[in-house]
Design brief:
single chain, 10 strands, flat, about 15% helix, alpha+beta, two-stranded antiparallel sheet, about 170 residues, Alpha-Beta Plaits
Length: about 170
């Protein structure tokens, strides 16, 4: 299922009825637990405590802009080829696509309008660790399909960031 802004690959509902991303890699995913396992952040939903769905140790963010005349192709290939190919890479657990937009926020008692800066599109990859990004499987997956020849040349302002979940 795709949202109007094509931001999330799949949707589901948590026990409170909130919509959450659900596209996950096929097969079992090792869930860290016990001594030495990374802590998981806790968030509050209403009055109930709920664990955030991120269970990976690292988050890799790929952000970019795309030429306006190639935007439809970019979204089609990202959703139908690029993400499915990368979800097959060992150590890639989930992918969520994001599209930046302007918003308003209240800070210090005043509402502020915030324009989106930086690349318009981002993809958040939940991964096992930095080694995944230099693995032969990753190197092969990013070169499959129409991405390298029909999409990548029309992207710009590319940024890649790695975060360790704490």
């Amino acid at each position: 299922m795709r949202l109007r802004c094509e931001a999330i690959i799949g949707l589901g509902e948590n026990k409170q009825g909130a919509i959450i991303p659900t596209q996950r890699a096929e097969g079992p995913v090792d869930q860290p637990s016990g001594v030495g396992a990374p802590r998981r952040r806790t968030r509050w939903v209403g009055r109930e405590e709920e664990r955030m769905p991120i269970t990976a140790k690292y988050l890799f963010v790929a952000s970019m802009d795309v030429d306006p005349d190639k935007e439809a192709l970019f979204n089609e290939v990202y959703d139908t080829e690029h993400v499915p190919n990368l979800l097959k890479v060992p150590g890639v657990y989930a992918v969520t696509r994001l599209k930046g937009e302007p918003f308003a926020v209240s800070i210090g008692g005043a509402e502020q309008q915030v324009t989106h800066t930086g690349p318009r599109y981002s993809a958040l990859y939940e991964i096992e660790g930095p080694h995944v990004l230099v693995s032969p499987a990753w190197a092969q997956a990013v070169e499959l399909g129409r991405w390298p020849s029909q999409v990548r040349p029309y992207t710009r302002n590319r940024r890649h960031t790695l975060y360790q979940v704490c």
